[in-house]
Amino acid sequence: MRLHVGCAMWTLRSWQGRFMPHPLPPHERLRHYASWCDAVEGNTTFYATPTRETVASWAQQTGPDFRFVVKLPKTVTHERRLADAGEPLRAFLDAVEPLGPRAHALWVQLPGSFGPGDVPVLARFLRRLPADHRYAVEVRHPDFFAEPRAAAQLEEVLTAAGAEWIPFDTTAFFARPPTSDAERDAWMKKPRMPLRTRALTTRPIVRYLGRDDTARTVEGWRRWVEVTAGWLREGRTPTVFVHTPDNAEAPALARRFHEEVRVLVPGLAPLPDPIPAAPLTLF
What we know:
DUF72, UPF0759_sf, DUF72 domain-containing protein, 2 domains, globular, alpha/beta, 9-stranded parallel β-sheet, 9 strands
């Protein structure tokens, strides 16, 4: 029984001196993050495919139970829209190979304009992917959430490929007007996504966006605590990523989410204690 939790990144300036030592060389930051959380979103790969050497360093900084959900490059998903993308896709798959089993899923995030009429393109794309990876798809076109036939069509394609549907829950964030600069920025940039809590595979993945106010974030994830506990009881292995507009408390919030689920599922093992951000002293 395993629940993976994590954040949208493994380093942030505001975490230095709090969740990890400061100063800390960049090549050691993932190791310290991995003592707080056991999963991370691989968002940087959306903008540029890293070298194999860089990815190998990620594997070296994390234990065998750590998990990456790595996003396909925008060249594949947004610019070529899954068509004629063989070359950049092969380069990406080669680059992430050093992660081995740490690659929990390869994440196909599709643009908001990718709608129900494009599902056959997605089906062809998924059929051609190598079977040695798991895949997860995030859609943002409103019809997939408002139209039952569109949702059913997408679910059928994903199920046939053994792929998961990643929900990005922004309902708690958009429930109240923004109150900080970070929230106002996110208000303009983040998608207003309807709630979806249905899992298609044994490895559901959730992206949850809360508020800069910790109490609001915790209030908004209550349904996910219940849903995640239910998945664990069904024998699934969920992964939950906790976001806030400023992400200042994200590692601690991810651990808190894990603890709240553990209250409902006592058989879930606790996360290990994190590496101290400062040296331990006698006094």
